[in-house]
Amino acid sequence: MIALLQEDPLAFLLAFSALVMSLVLHEVGHAYAAHLFGDDTAKRQGRLSLNPLRHLDPLGTLLLLLVGFGWARPVPIYPPAFRAYRLGLFALDPEGVYGAFRGSGGSALGLLALAAYVASSINLVLAVFNLLPIPPLDGSKILQSLLPLAWHPWLWRLEQYAWLSFLLILTVLRGPIQEVLAFARRVFFTLLLG
Fold first, then answer.
1. Among 75, 80, 138, 185, which is least packed by CB within 10 angstroms?
2. CA–CA separation, 170 vs 153, rounded Å?
3. How far is the C-alpha of 194 from the C-alpha of 177, rounded, in Å?
4. Single pTM value for the model
């Protein structure tokens, strides 16, 4: 990202803005889905807001600027409050993906077309990446909705060590994940652009 700033400040601004809004919409989507299923924890903590300051994590934002990979503060949820526990866990993440994609509409004209391309590309990567079944990523909630209830407390405890997950992703799994993301982008834009 820093190299992009030096090469083209406008492209950097577009990319960074799209990343920030994608992260915000994604977290608001989680908060809203949890609220719909009966958990008001995120709402009580002000996380149903579009204010980026309520969602951005300082370290995640710094890494976003430096290496183009970062994260937002995870939305606090209390699954036992869900009216339909397993369905709530499963629906929590598609709602977040939908929230992220809602913000990526665009126009066919000039700068708006570029912004739409950047936003949709970023959101696609975020959506695919978040489906990985590694805590605290969203795919882990979907996996959890399918696993026996006795495993759930153990999986929730794993989220305390989210930094280990990101370390694993950045070191051991980086290559394979980048290949999956590149494949998803090729398929998406081939279908989109015909």
1. 80
2. 26
3. 25
4. 0.55
